[in-house]
Design goal:
The chain has eleven helices and 17 strands. It is α/β, with parallel strands linked by helices. The structure holds NADP nicotinamide-adenine-dinucleotide phosphate. The site of NADP nicotinamide-adenine-dinucleotide phosphate (NAP) has 27 residues, from strand 8, strand 9, strand 14, strand 16 and helix 10.
Length: 408
């Protein structure tokens, strides 16, 4: 039996105000007795209508299960069961299966996280991530719901926005997490292809709100070897997928590069090219969830060669400045001075310094490894001019889950 994501209510936090039951559009999906409010797994369709109105957050709890908790069990609880998967789920996989997958994904992410120079925690208000649920031996099967080129037709950079639909298979992800895609077939040595990791570009409740789908941002890799044009296996497989194709998906992966959920958090995002994927997810999450008057700000430093090479250039322009400050910079736009993200960070030095002084600021870097040195140098310079020490600040931010780097 495949795992499902079961919606539960925390009896320790719930104040029994009946708001969830009143807001639930499905008769009987949320009910109560004298003890507890509970969700009927047979009736709940994950519409999320109950989530925002709940005054305490008791409603927003989820467990991956193969044997769902019954109403009787939920009525009997004084507290939620442990967050760990029930034993029934664990039995569906072997340890070796788990370890192999963890090793493969961890090795990739360890390299990607080197730039934060030490182990980092997730933000204190980040949601709990589910990781390693689907393995190479037990992958989730997703169907391609759409595949669109998102760079201009005359650009050399062929970047695609791919939407994967999971149908009735639960595949929980958070903004900032990655998934694995296994290209079919074998490599030159006759071994199955390595898994490729891609950041999820859509928020946790789906590319389309409350749909069981997600999106990816993938650039087609072409390179020359021995005078011949070669195609990157993973990226060309993904960029060539057709609507309706089935894809083997593993994961989700990543438990630290996650967004803060408290509305006071300022989120500074710095990226190049397809490194923008997790920031599209975080921005869209904020856009969907924010309330008027929320104090937290968002700022995006985004570098590409030209406007035509910048993924999501059109939709990005439409996002209101009240939601996100956009600092887009181009390195090869004709008649324009070459500009990298670190140059723009320096130009915005006094504003960046104010953000660095604020304990509610969370910084994320994603994209080319090469940008790390330049971005670090820009932060150092801004700190020097504003009575701060970047090395000390970075260590403190990292230890508080406020400085995150994922570069390849
Ligand atoms: P790209 O087009 O090669 O480069 C984007 C911009 O970065 C260009 O303007 C480039 O300028 C500039 N750049 C080059 N070196 C730089 C440096 N040292 N400092 C600052 N800017 C620099 O980018 P891309 O091919 O899309 O690569 C994005 C990276 O993100 C890849 O390494 C990818 O693996 C990674 N990533 C992808 C995902 C995903 O889900 N697909 C997720 C996370 C990370 P010039 O070329 O003019 O020098």
């Amino acid at each position: 039996m495949s795992a499902i994501r079961q919606h539960l209510i925390d009896p320790e936090v719930c104040i029994r105000c009946n708001t969830c039951e009143e807001n639930c559009p499905i008769d009987g999906a949320i009910t109560h007795n004298a003890d507890n409010y509970v969700v009927d797994v047979e009736k709940c369709n994950y519409c999320m209508s109950c989530i925002a109105p709940c005054p305490t957050g008791a409603i927003d709890h989820w467990r991956m299960v193969t044997t769902p908790y019954s109403l009787e069990e939920q009525f009997s609880w004084d507290e939620l069961p442990d967050d760990a998967e029930p034993a029934a789920n664990a039995e569906t996989r072997t340890n070796a299966d788990h370890e192999a997958l963890e090793d493969e994904a961890t090795a990739i992410l360890d390299v990607a996280h080197q730039g934060q120079q030490g182990k980092v925690k997730p933000p204190f208000s980040a949601a709990h991530p589910f990781i390693n649920i689907y393995t190479r031996e037990n992958p989730a099967i997703a169907k391609v719901a759409g595949n669109y080129r998102i760079t201009s037709e005359n650009s050399d950079s062929d970047i695609h926005h791919i939407v994967l639909d999971f149908g009735s298979t639960a595949f929980p992800v958070l903004e900032g997490q990655s998934i694995g895609i296994i290209p079919p077939g074998v490599d030159g040595r006759g071994k199955p292809h390595n898994m490729r990791l891609y950041s999820v570009a859509s928020p946790r409740d789906g590319e389309r709100p409350n749909h069981n789908n997600l999106s990816l941002t993938v650039k087609r890799v072409l390179f020359e070897e021995d005078g011949e044009l070669q195609k990157g296996v993973g990226s060309n497989y993904v960029c060539d997928l057709q609507k309706g194709d089935e894809v083997q998906v593993t994961g989700a992966f990543g438990s630290t590069f996650l967004m803060p959920n408290h509305p006071e958090a300022n989120i500074m995002m710095i990226c190049t090219g397809t490194g923008s994927a997790p920031f599209r997810a975080m921005t869209e999450r904020r856009r969907r969830k924010r309330s008027p008057g929320d104090p937290g700000k968002m700022m995006l430093f985004f570098g590409a060669r030209t406007k035509g090479d910048l993924p999501y250039f059109g939709p990005l322009q439409k996002l209101p400045n009240s939601l996100i400050r956009k600092e887009l910079c181009f390195s090869r736009e004709p008649d324009q001075e070459k500009e990298y993200v670190q140059d723009r960070i320096l130009k915005c030095g006094s504003d960046v310094a104010e953000w660095l002084k604020d304990d509610n600021t969370f910084i994320y870097l994603c994209g080319l490894k090469g940008m790390e040195i330049g971005v670090e140098a820009a932060f150092s310079k801004i700190c020097e001019g504003n009575g701060l020490n970047w090395d000390t600040l970075r260590t403190a931010m990292r230890e508080n889950g406020r400085y995150h780097v994922e570069t390849y």
